[in-house]
Protein backbone atom coordinates (compact mmCIF):
# COMPACT_ATOMS: atom_id res chain seq x y z
CA UNK A 1 0.00 0.00 0.00
CA UNK A 2 2.74 2.46 0.99
CA UNK A 3 4.65 1.76 -2.24
CA UNK A 4 1.68 3.00 -4.29
CA UNK A 5 2.82 6.54 -3.50
CA UNK A 6 5.87 8.11 -5.15
CA UNK A 7 7.27 11.47 -6.25
CA UNK A 8 5.04 11.46 -9.34
CA UNK A 9 1.90 10.61 -7.35
CA UNK A 10 2.24 11.95 -3.79
CA UNK A 11 -1.55 12.27 -3.44
CA UNK A 12 -3.89 9.50 -4.60
CA UNK A 13 -7.63 8.96 -4.49
CA UNK A 14 -9.13 5.83 -2.98
CA UNK A 15 -9.84 4.44 -6.45
CA UNK A 16 -6.28 5.11 -7.63
CA UNK A 17 -4.81 3.36 -4.59
CA UNK A 18 -7.12 0.38 -5.10
CA UNK A 19 -6.05 0.03 -8.74
CA UNK A 20 -2.34 0.43 -8.01
CA UNK A 21 -2.41 -2.03 -5.12
CA UNK A 22 -4.68 -4.51 -6.90
CA UNK A 23 -7.27 -4.37 -4.10
CA UNK A 24 -10.98 -3.78 -3.84
CA UNK A 25 -12.09 -0.28 -2.86
CA UNK A 26 -13.36 -1.58 0.46
CA UNK A 27 -10.05 -3.24 1.34
CA UNK A 28 -8.02 -0.24 0.17
CA UNK A 29 -10.21 2.10 2.23
CA UNK A 30 -9.81 -0.03 5.35
CA UNK A 31 -6.01 -0.15 4.98
CA UNK A 32 -5.73 3.56 4.23
CA UNK A 33 -7.78 4.42 7.30
CA UNK A 34 -5.57 2.13 9.38
CA UNK A 35 -2.46 3.89 8.06
CA UNK A 36 -4.07 7.23 8.88
CA UNK A 37 -4.89 6.13 12.42
CA UNK A 38 -1.30 4.99 12.92
CA UNK A 39 0.03 8.31 11.62
CA UNK A 40 1.57 6.97 8.40
CA UNK A 41 -0.96 8.62 6.06
CA UNK A 42 -3.22 11.66 6.02
CA UNK A 43 -6.51 12.46 4.31
CA UNK A 44 -6.47 15.48 2.00
CA UNK A 45 -10.04 16.10 0.82
CA UNK A 46 -10.78 13.09 -1.37
CA UNK A 47 -7.11 12.14 -1.58
CA UNK A 48 -4.58 10.36 0.60
CA UNK A 49 -0.88 11.02 1.08
CA UNK A 50 1.92 9.66 3.24
CA UNK A 51 3.36 11.45 6.25
CA UNK A 52 7.07 11.69 7.19
CA UNK A 53 6.42 9.01 9.80
CA UNK A 54 6.78 6.30 7.12
CA UNK A 55 10.53 6.98 7.25
CA UNK A 56 10.52 5.30 10.66
CA UNK A 57 9.83 1.97 8.95
CA UNK A 58 13.06 2.06 6.95
CA UNK A 59 15.18 3.76 9.56
CA UNK A 60 14.11 1.26 12.22
CA UNK A 61 15.68 -1.52 10.16
CA UNK A 62 18.82 0.45 9.36
CA UNK A 63 19.25 1.59 12.95
CA UNK A 64 18.81 -1.93 14.27
CA UNK A 65 21.63 -3.04 12.01
CA UNK A 66 23.84 -0.10 13.13
CA UNK A 67 25.63 -0.97 9.92
CA UNK A 68 25.62 2.59 8.64
CA UNK A 69 27.34 3.93 11.76
CA UNK A 70 29.99 1.22 11.52
CA UNK A 71 30.66 1.77 7.82
CA UNK A 72 30.49 5.56 7.69
CA UNK A 73 34.07 6.43 8.82
CA UNK A 74 35.53 4.10 6.18
CA UNK A 75 33.17 5.38 3.46
CA UNK A 76 34.04 8.98 4.34
CA UNK A 77 37.76 8.21 4.10
CA UNK A 78 37.33 6.44 0.75
CA UNK A 79 35.36 9.38 -0.62
CA UNK A 80 38.08 11.76 0.58
CA UNK A 81 40.87 9.72 -1.02
CA UNK A 82 39.14 9.39 -4.38
CA UNK A 83 37.23 12.69 -4.29
CA UNK A 84 34.21 10.74 -5.53
CA UNK A 85 30.81 9.85 -4.13
CA UNK A 86 30.98 6.59 -2.16
CA UNK A 87 28.06 4.41 -1.06
CA UNK A 88 27.24 1.13 0.64
CA UNK A 89 24.13 -0.91 -0.13
CA UNK A 90 22.47 -4.23 0.65
CA UNK A 91 20.23 -6.43 -1.48
CA UNK A 92 16.46 -6.29 -1.06
CA UNK A 93 14.54 -8.42 -3.54
CA UNK A 94 15.30 -7.14 -7.04
CA UNK A 95 16.70 -3.86 -5.69
CA UNK A 96 19.63 -2.52 -3.77
CA UNK A 97 18.96 -0.31 -0.74
CA UNK A 98 21.44 2.40 0.22
CA UNK A 99 22.49 2.10 3.87
CA UNK A 100 25.35 4.62 3.81
CA UNK A 101 26.24 7.35 1.32
CA UNK A 102 28.80 10.16 1.13
CA UNK A 103 28.28 12.30 -1.95
CA UNK A 104 30.66 14.86 -3.41
CA UNK A 105 28.21 16.00 -6.08
CA UNK A 106 24.78 15.14 -7.40
CA UNK A 107 25.44 12.51 -10.05
CA UNK A 108 21.92 11.34 -10.95
CA UNK A 109 18.69 12.99 -11.98
CA UNK A 110 17.09 11.43 -8.89
CA UNK A 111 18.22 12.20 -5.37
CA UNK A 112 20.02 9.32 -3.65
CA UNK A 113 20.04 9.00 0.13
CA UNK A 114 19.97 6.34 2.81
CA UNK A 115 16.95 4.15 2.10
CA UNK A 116 16.91 4.82 -1.66
CA UNK A 117 16.18 1.82 -3.91
CA UNK A 118 17.72 1.14 -7.33
CA UNK A 119 17.39 -1.92 -9.61
CA UNK A 120 20.14 -4.40 -8.73
CA UNK A 121 20.60 -5.70 -12.28
CA UNK A 122 21.57 -2.29 -13.68
CA UNK A 123 23.91 -1.14 -10.89
CA UNK A 124 27.48 -2.07 -9.98
CA UNK A 125 26.62 -2.75 -6.34
CA UNK A 126 23.60 -4.79 -7.37
CA UNK A 127 25.65 -6.96 -9.70
CA UNK A 128 28.24 -7.57 -6.99
CA UNK A 129 25.52 -8.66 -4.57
CA UNK A 130 23.71 -10.82 -7.13
CA UNK A 131 26.94 -12.44 -8.30
CA UNK A 132 27.80 -13.64 -4.81
CA UNK A 133 24.45 -15.24 -4.04
CA UNK A 134 24.35 -19.05 -3.79
CA UNK A 135 23.66 -20.51 -7.24
CA UNK A 136 20.15 -21.72 -6.41
CA UNK A 137 19.12 -18.40 -4.91
CA UNK A 138 20.58 -16.47 -7.84
CA UNK A 139 18.67 -18.56 -10.36
CA UNK A 140 15.47 -18.10 -8.38
CA UNK A 141 15.90 -14.32 -8.42
CA UNK A 142 16.87 -14.17 -12.08
CA UNK A 143 13.87 -16.30 -13.09
CA UNK A 144 11.50 -13.65 -11.76
CA UNK A 145 13.55 -10.63 -12.80
CA UNK A 146 12.18 -8.10 -15.29
CA UNK A 147 15.07 -6.29 -16.97
CA UNK A 148 14.05 -2.72 -17.76
CA UNK A 149 15.88 -0.65 -20.37
CA UNK A 150 17.02 2.65 -18.82
CA UNK A 151 19.50 3.73 -21.51
CA UNK A 152 20.63 2.34 -24.88
CA UNK A 153 23.50 0.61 -23.01
CA UNK A 154 21.34 -1.20 -20.43
CA UNK A 155 21.74 -4.99 -20.45
CA UNK A 156 18.26 -6.48 -20.97
CA UNK A 157 19.24 -10.05 -21.85
CA UNK A 158 19.22 -12.56 -18.99
CA UNK A 159 21.82 -14.62 -20.82
CA UNK A 160 24.14 -11.62 -21.06
CA UNK A 161 23.49 -10.71 -17.43
CA UNK A 162 24.39 -14.24 -16.29
CA UNK A 163 27.70 -13.98 -18.19
CA UNK A 164 28.43 -10.63 -16.56
CA UNK A 165 27.63 -11.95 -13.08
CA UNK A 166 29.95 -14.91 -13.61
CA UNK A 167 32.74 -12.50 -14.51
CA UNK A 168 31.95 -10.32 -11.49
CA UNK A 169 32.19 -13.31 -9.18
CA UNK A 170 35.51 -14.38 -10.74
CA UNK A 171 37.14 -10.95 -10.68
CA UNK A 172 35.62 -9.62 -7.46
CA UNK A 173 34.29 -6.33 -8.76
CA UNK A 174 31.68 -4.85 -11.12
CA UNK A 175 31.81 -1.86 -13.43
CA UNK A 176 28.65 -0.34 -14.91
CA UNK A 177 28.97 2.38 -17.53
CA UNK A 178 25.87 4.40 -18.43
CA UNK A 179 23.40 1.53 -18.04
CA UNK A 180 21.22 3.05 -15.33
CA UNK A 181 21.53 6.65 -16.45
CA UNK A 182 23.34 8.29 -19.35
CA UNK A 183 26.53 9.99 -18.23
CA UNK A 184 26.90 7.91 -15.03
CA UNK A 185 29.46 5.19 -14.31
CA UNK A 186 30.27 3.25 -11.16
CA UNK A 187 32.53 0.53 -9.79
CA UNK A 188 31.74 -1.72 -6.80
CA UNK A 189 33.25 -4.49 -4.70
CA UNK A 190 31.76 -6.86 -2.10
CA UNK A 191 31.90 -6.43 1.67
CA UNK A 192 32.37 -9.74 3.47
CA UNK A 193 31.17 -10.49 7.00
CA UNK A 194 31.27 -13.59 9.16
CA UNK A 195 32.24 -16.77 7.33
CA UNK A 196 33.40 -14.76 4.30
CA UNK A 197 29.73 -14.20 3.37
CA UNK A 198 29.03 -11.16 1.17
CA UNK A 199 26.72 -8.92 3.19
CA UNK A 200 26.94 -5.61 1.34
CA UNK A 201 28.65 -3.77 -1.50
CA UNK A 202 30.58 -0.50 -1.63
CA UNK A 203 31.04 1.65 -4.72
CA UNK A 204 32.27 4.86 -6.28
CA UNK A 205 29.95 6.59 -8.72
CA UNK A 206 30.34 9.68 -10.85
CA UNK A 207 30.33 11.21 -14.35
CA UNK A 208 31.17 8.72 -17.09
CA UNK A 209 33.50 11.25 -18.68
CA UNK A 210 35.74 10.86 -15.64
CA UNK A 211 35.00 7.32 -14.45
CA UNK A 212 35.50 4.94 -17.33
CA UNK A 213 38.12 2.77 -18.97
CA UNK A 214 41.07 0.76 -17.57
CA UNK A 215 42.64 3.79 -15.88
CA UNK A 216 39.44 4.36 -13.94
CA UNK A 217 39.47 0.79 -12.67
CA UNK A 218 43.18 0.83 -11.79
CA UNK A 219 42.77 4.03 -9.80
CA UNK A 220 39.65 3.25 -7.80
CA UNK A 221 39.64 -0.52 -7.33
CA UNK A 222 42.45 -0.62 -4.72
CA UNK A 223 40.74 2.06 -2.61
CA UNK A 224 37.41 0.24 -2.75
CA UNK A 225 38.95 -3.10 -1.86
CA UNK A 226 40.76 -1.59 1.11
CA UNK A 227 37.53 0.07 2.25
CA UNK A 228 35.53 -3.15 1.90
CA UNK A 229 38.14 -5.06 3.91
CA UNK A 230 38.09 -2.45 6.69
CA UNK A 231 34.30 -2.54 6.90
CA UNK A 232 34.29 -6.34 6.80
CA UNK A 233 36.92 -6.56 9.55
CA UNK A 234 34.90 -4.18 11.73
CA UNK A 235 31.79 -6.30 11.15
CA UNK A 236 33.61 -9.50 12.10
CA UNK A 237 35.07 -7.91 15.23
CA UNK A 238 31.62 -6.71 16.25
CA UNK A 239 30.21 -10.19 15.77
CA UNK A 240 33.00 -11.73 17.84
CA UNK A 241 32.48 -9.18 20.60
CA UNK A 242 28.77 -9.96 20.69
CA UNK A 243 29.57 -13.69 20.93
CA UNK A 244 32.00 -13.08 23.80
CA UNK A 245 29.42 -11.01 25.68
CA UNK A 246 26.70 -13.62 25.25
CA UNK A 247 29.04 -16.38 26.50
CA UNK A 248 30.14 -14.34 29.48
CA UNK A 249 33.75 -13.97 28.36
Structure description:
The protein is α+β, with helices and mostly antiparallel strands and 249 residues long. It has 2 domains: 49 residues, Winged helix-like DNA-binding domain superfamily/Winged helix DNA-binding domain (Arc Repressor Mutant, subunit A, Orthogonal Bundle); 187 residues, 2-Layer Sandwich (Beta-Lactamase). Helices cover 46% and strands 21% of the residues. The strands form 2 sheets. The chain has a 6-stranded antiparallel sheet with strand order 6-5-4-9-8-7, with helices on both faces. Strand 7 and strand 8 form a beta hairpin. Helix 4 packs antiparallel against helix 8 and helix 5 crosses helix 7. The longest helix has 35 residues. The C terminus is likely disordered.
Descriptors for this entry?
disordered C terminus; alpha+beta; 8 helices; Beta-Lactamase; 249 residues; single chain; 9 strands
CATH topology of the largest domain: Beta-Lactamase
Fourth-tier CATH superfamily name of the largest domain? GAF domain
Structural class: alpha+beta
Q: Please tell me the total number of domains.
A: 2
Low-confidence stretches: 242-247
Tell me the strand percentage band.
Answer: 15-25%
What is the spatial order of strands in the main beta sheet?
6-5-4-9-8-7
**Large-scale geometry:** globular
Reported CATH architecture of the largest domain: 2-Layer Sandwich
Q: Whole-number average pLDDT?
A: 85
Computed over alpha carbons, the radius of gyration is 20 Å
Q: Which CATH top level class of the largest domain fits?
A: Alpha Beta
Helix segment tally: 8
